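To whoever picks this up:

The parser on our side crashed when reading a file containing two proteins. I've narrowed it down to the boundary between the first structure block and the second sequence. Both blocks are reproduced below exactly, byte for byte. First block:
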Amino acid sequence: MKRSLYLAMAVGLAAAAAPAVAQQTVIFTTGRPDPTNFNGADTSLGWSSGTVAPNTERWSAQMFVIPAGGATIGQIDAVGFIATAYNRLNWKIWNRLPGDPAPTPADEVTTAGASGSVLNPPGEDKPEIDRGFAATGDTRRIVLPTPVTLPAGNYWLSVYASEPSAGSGDANFAWFANPQPDPAFYPPPNTNTPLFHSDASGAFMWRSTIYPTPGFGVYRPTNVLPATAPTWGPNPQSPNYIWNAAFRLLTTPPPGACCAPDGTCSVLNSTACEQALGTFRGANTTCATAPCTGSCCSPGGTCSVTTPNACAAADGLFGGFGTTCGTCRAPGACCMPDGTCTTNAFYQCDRTDGSIYRGDGTSCPSTCLQTGACCRMDNTCAIVTEAVCKGAFNSGNGVFRGAGTTCAAAVCPTTYGYNGPQVPIEDYAVHTACGTVAVAEISVTDSFTLGSADASMFITHTYQGDLKVWLKHVSTGTQVQLLNLQSSATGGPFFDADDYGNPNIPNGWFRMIDSAPTYYRFPPLTTTGINGAHFQWKPESPLAAFAGENSSGVWQLLAQDCGPGDTGTIITWALTLHRPTGNTCYANCDSSTTPPVANVADFTCFLQKFAATDPYANCDGSTTPPTINVADFTCFLQKFAAGCP
């Protein structure tokens, strides 16, 4: 599931109390839809709503209440999906009379805004009202062009599609059903309030075939029942709510700065901004405080302040709205998988699977075509180029030992595969910080001293930025964080791409290894991440923390979901254990080679990395912010005292 995160970032001096700002509030909510038993099987069910042949208008009348004092409805969130394509989504409100008789034309609310039509809004994910069934987003956000003010009372609502955009003639919005009272998800005082009406035979829905004549009739098919074993929501279910559709009513969304593609700014609400193809800067922001330009580093390393669109057109790297020009990274040599070399910006080089970026300011070397030992994940060794070893199909994801090296002298690591079942990653628990930790174990019986370790994985998940992942050696207690809510900047927005690892690519593991050139974060990535991210990336904390330990024992890949509305699965993973070779001693911070390799210069090196908040400085692999803290000094002193081999 994809969802938009609006992040407010403020920097400034302490001041007097901030003025009150407009807030959007929920007037009424049915709660989230739940499974229904349809034709003998539990499933997520949607009520057809719109022009569905042979019915010209198939509507369902859904109940809601306006509380004492009345309210002004500015937004309707209807939970459903496109069953057949349509161009417009419509709504209509009726007064609900005592006894809940079927709504008729005489009951229609005639106040401006009580009925209307908008262009089909895009699907969104709103975990507070939907379940994330549809890949394109379940919730249709209808912002009323004219907000409707209603007095306290009882009402009916129908939401329906019209104007087919395909050739079938149908325009069907499938409105998800069966929101049940759910105090676990909506604890008091924010309880959800699904309503129902019934006759002597039980609850039913007023549903139309053609309106106004013959209008609404009783709808209660016998093949629709409460779910027998719901996988979410209340269990057991009440039969009273299965005819309901899921929606909520809100006040008008507050306006904010809207940046148009040409860089101009206007103040609109979020929906109007999206319809204008703009970028909404956040509720209650102003054009004066939310600039529509930012820094853009060109492929050649120069910087200008421009719009995101202009930066993208120049193949530049946009630094974000409001950023100013600093020092851009110079282009460098990029060795391609075929052995050729080009001079590119680092982000241009990283676009090609199997490319090797030689560093900022480097010139094309003569070593792109040089071969050396490649330690593969299947525990074999081959003589290939570095690009082929690390990223090319079939031979990718290996460890390159250097140009001119031989397999006989390579000291290749050993890879151990996971043989257990797939492990579900549960969704974030709504009222706590994160969900339950998923654990997949590999037991190693080989015994040798470690130089380092690395982990490769295939994890399915519909929102990469929700996940934290660690590698743990149970026997020693050492735990290293591999991923930490990956995002395009500190604190977000978080990557909404899917999955770690791509099974459709040979050796398409997502491999976390210290020798990788870059971290899996922005830059060089797009602000949404990479679907099926694969090949080699640097972990958030150094895996050299395992150096010096014995290889034997239980190793665990741990994964935890820390955002609502998405789930995933650890499909499989692999553990690679490295024997000492070169600088694998953590205390040798500067990678010196002259004995003693651990010396006073390493203290200076560690202090510099600590000051720069380099992940290396997270010596103890802590995960609680701030992860780099005074405890890391103690950890470094202990590792230094232990010495280096």
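<<boundary where parser fails>>
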Amino acid sequence: MQTIAELPEYLRRAEKLLGDNEGSEVIEMSEAYKSIKSGLEQAIAHAKNEPIQAVVHDFGPMDVKSIRRKVGMTQNEFASSFGISLGTLRHWERGDRKPRGPARVLLSVLDSDPESVLNALKS
């Protein structure tokens, strides 16, 4: 496995190989290469704690119980409405676990605009 320090050398080698060719396949490969290169450069910068162009969303602490109460649902109703197991919801409310990924996004949207989410569920 390559280390982050070795990635710039691999990028230089690939650039040299792609730069010496012509034709439509090479142009397509060059575009793919540029995209991959950009992603690798951002990953290297991120690993070195340098500023990067990617937008990183950082959601703060989440009070799941207050969000549930805001929509006026019991634990059973909330879990059933949003496809969350009752046990998971209880862990979130106690703070034993934290919601992640799409669940966190859903809870954020539900916290900021409960009416829209509830209306979407009705239709």
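After patching the parser it read the second block fine. The mean pLDDT is 81. The chain has two domains: 4-47, 64-122.
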